[in-house]
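Our consortium's second objective concerns turning raw sequence data into structural hypotheses that experimental partners can test. To show how far this objective has progressed, the report includes one record in full. It was chosen at random from the queue rather than selected for favorable results. The single chain below, 231 residues long, was entered without modification.
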Amino acid sequence: MKVKLGFGSIPKPQYVFVSRENDYCWYMLTEERKHIPIYEKALTGVITGIEVNKKIETSFGEAEKTDLYIFADKPYIVRSGSDSYFSKSLLLSLDALTAEQLHNPLTLAVSPGDKTVVFCSIYDPVTYRSVGVSWDGHREINWQALGQKVSIKINDNHSSKQERIQTFTNTTQSELHAVLIAQTDTYLAQLNWSPEQGREYLQQKYGRRSRHHLSDTELLDFIDYLKLQLI
């Protein structure tokens, strides 16, 4: 994200609140606490964290909320009631995603239901496919346990890549790149991939035909993908 120099607004995350209104399903607030409707039905970005069953003081007293952190054109925090259909459909979708999918941008979409209900769907913005979830037996689901499971999955997934890069802080950039390339060599050999298979995947996924042209973060993504193929 490009940093703008000079005077400007305070650099803090933008809260987005989920609520079923006449012609929109989520909104932002002005400093005077007035609604700013969001008429777009989707937000695309990288999910960086989640807080579930978070106790918040509201004008109606204490309430439990789910806060989803998404980095897009700016950092967003999408807040919904923990017991809402939005929060529950969000948890079901996040639980169905793989670690590799969580490394990539995803599209969060809202759709209105009956009366005050808002549903959440997650899409892959590249393939346009939604994450398939089932509501069968949802009344028997332990939502608190599912929330904890998803929280660990999302938050550990976000921090793991930063920790892996941090372990190489005493090496130079070129040394780090060489180490990551060597790791891909090992996994490619175990998978018996041909050079052409590798080039085709890199071209489709990253728009490059050589691992040497990938960034360190992209190489880590590629390594995670290769590991999954070995399972």
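The partners drew two points from this record. The chain has six helices and eight strands. Residues 168-230 form one domain. Both points have been shared with the crystallography group to help prioritize constructs.
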